[in-house]
Design a protein that fits this description.
Strands 11-10-9-13-18-15-16 form a seven-stranded mixed β-sheet, with no helix packed on it. It has a six-stranded mixed β-sheet with strand order 22-21-24-29-26-27, with no helix packed on it. It has a five-stranded mixed β-sheet with strand order 12-20-19-14-17, with no helix packed on it. It has six helices and 31 strands. Helix content is 7%, strand content 39%. The chain is mostly beta strands. The protein has three domains: 122 residues, Cupredoxins -  blue copper proteins (Immunoglobulin-like, Sandwich), CATH 2.60.40; 146 residues, Cupredoxins -  blue copper proteins (Immunoglobulin-like, Sandwich), CATH 2.60.40.420; 125 residues, Sandwich (Immunoglobulin-like), CATH 2.60.40.420. Bound molecules: copper (II) ion (CU). The site of copper (II) ion (CU) has 5 residues, from loops.
Length: 498
């Protein structure tokens, strides 16, 4: 399938056939504004190979540490401290310095219940401003860690919000300061936030939580600085980690059903996940359970996106038993596309078990009605202007500019297009949306099922139509979730008026 149409000829790059882009990228070092040193040192050729670094792999899946709750029943009260931490990573090498929440990579998992009041005290012990954004959660604007509300180095602040009914889902938290988001994320600042329901149809299944993140190390075993290719394409390192471990081992019995919550917490990787041999049913998306399980062969998870699946152990001799990332072409200009199958984790058989029931229905999701407002959002790239390369509706982000004015309770319909050579995953703050339709090779296809999402990949040349309602007033960000693109200006604001 060729879905790269280059509908919009706004950039010099768009005129360049795909196969010629590599030579274009090689010539880019001569363009004004490009960092020659970064090109030389940061090109993938100079990134030490994964196997040369000696990072241990194949260990049992690390479990996530849990954030301690100091609150009474019905309350979650906790503390998160962002600070540098040195962790022994490579045998025989100095410890690796990360930036972490509470000294943990990934940050501690927060588990709360629908209806809870949440109070989280954040202490910023980094040398630069930060915030905590509660990704996907319906929190008031003033508590959502917008770039407008920085927590300065040495400062603390309390984030307070309540978790409404029917908000159970797999969310996460990460920094969102103006211009520093990508660096703070790749240095290690991210954690998961699971909201549970007391009426969970899958409560009988054992759960595995898998946080997928990206790690790029230099030859000293320290977190590498970003290359020009990282800044342009979105950063990818040598390793995709699962809960901070490389290619860990997950135990599963023949016939056993497990519920897996999977987070793509990488800066830029678009992961086409597959579990060959095993039976896999999609049961949830960013905003929680879908209406009914859907048997799948793979699920595409773009940066920021989550999926809940139910895996049923089916071990087939001669077939790999692994969580894989299948090859995916996301239209990079400078870096190499993923052409190999990546093994993210192996799955080891531990006997056999009776197969637990998988309910035929999970929850009701009502379709949003006809929109009161329709808008168009175009992601584009302008290679001619290194200061404003990544654009939304032709503009680079401005903290002072409101791009759209909306209204509380109003149904909005947005057509979001990637008129660019790259895929750009769209993320909206403050609410979940429903995808209504998408183009495939330019042909509209109705979305086959209803789901609540807060990130959706917009493949190069394609358009995604979605609907949402904002239930709380204030300035909401929307942006590309390739964090380097967000920092470079691919972000805009919706002012939701009362
Ligand atoms: Cu992007």
């Amino acid at each position: 399938m060729n879905r790269r149409h280059f509908l919009h000829w706004s950039s010099a790059l768009a005129l360049t056939p795909l196969l010629l882009r590599k030579s274009w990228a090689e010539g880019m070092a001569d363009m004004p504004g490009m960092d020659h040193a970064a090109m030389a040192h940061g090109a993938s050729a100079s990134m030490p190979a994964a196997d040369s670094l000696g990072l241990p792999h194949g260990l049992p899946l690390p479990s996530l540490s849990m954030l301690e709750n100091h609150g009474a029943p019905g309350h979650f009260v906790g503390q998160l401290r962002a600070a540098p931490v040195s962790l022994p990573l490579l045998p025989g090498k100095p410890a690796t310095t990360f930036w972490s929440y509470n000294g943990q990579i990934p940050g501690p998992a927060i588990v709360a219940w629908e209806g809870d009041e949440v109070s989280l005290q954040f202490a910023n012990q980094l040398g630069q401003p930060s915030t905590i954004h509660w990704h996907g959660m319906p929190v008031p604007v003033g508590q959502d860690g917008n770039p407008h509300d920085p927590v300065l180095p040495g400062q603390t602040r309390d984030y307070r919000f309540s978790l409404p009914a029917a908000s159970a889902a797999s969310y996460w938290y990460h920094p969102h300061p103006h211009g520093h988001t990508a660096q703070q994320a790749y240095m290690g600042l991210a954690g998961v936030f699971v909201v549970k329901s007391r009426h969970d149809p899958l409560v009988h299944l054992p759960e595995q939580w898998l946080v997928l993140s990206d790690l790029k190390l230099d030859d000293q075993g320290q977190i590498a600085t970003s290359s020009a290719a990282d800044h342009h394409d979105g950063r990818e390192g040598q390793f995709v980690l699962v809960n901070g471990g490389w290619q860990p081992e997950i135990a599963l019995a023949e016939g056993e059903r497990q519920r897996w919550r999977i987070w793509n917490a990488s800066s830029a990787r678009i992961l086409k996940l597959a579990l060959p041999a095993h039976e896999v049913d999609l049961v949830g998306t960013d905003g929680g359970l879908i209406g009914a399980p859907r048997r799948i062969d793979s699920v595409l998870l773009s940066p920021g996106e989550r999926a809940e699946i139910v895996i049923t152990g089916r071990f087939v001799p001669g077939q790999p038993s692994a969580l894989q990332a299948l090859p995916y072409n996301r239209g990079k200009a400078m870096g190499k596309e993923q052409t190999d199958i990546l093994t993210l984790a192996t799955i080891r058989q531990t006997g056999s078990k009776a197969t637990a029931a998988l309910p035929g229905t999970l929850r009701d999701i009502a379709a949003l009605g006809n929109p009161a407002v329709k808008r168009v959002v175009n992601f584009s790239e302008n290679m001619a202007d290194p200061a404003a390369m990544f654009l939304i509706n032709g503009k680079t982000f401005d903290m002072e500019r409101v791009d759209f004015i909306g209204k509380v309770g109003q149904i909005e319909e947005w057509d979001i297009a990637s008129q660019a050579h790259m895929d750009h995953p769209f993320h909206l703050h403050g609410t979940q949306f429903q995808v209504i339709a998408r183009t495939d090779d330019g042909v509209w296809q109705t979305e086959p099922f209803l789901a609540w999402r807060d990130v959706v990949n917009i493949p190069a040349g394609e358009t995604v139509r979605l609907r949402f309602v904002q239930q709380q007033p204030g300035l909401r960000m929307f942006h590309c979730h390739i964090l380097e693109h967000e920092d470079a200006g691919m972000m805009a604001m919706l002012d939701v008026r009362p």
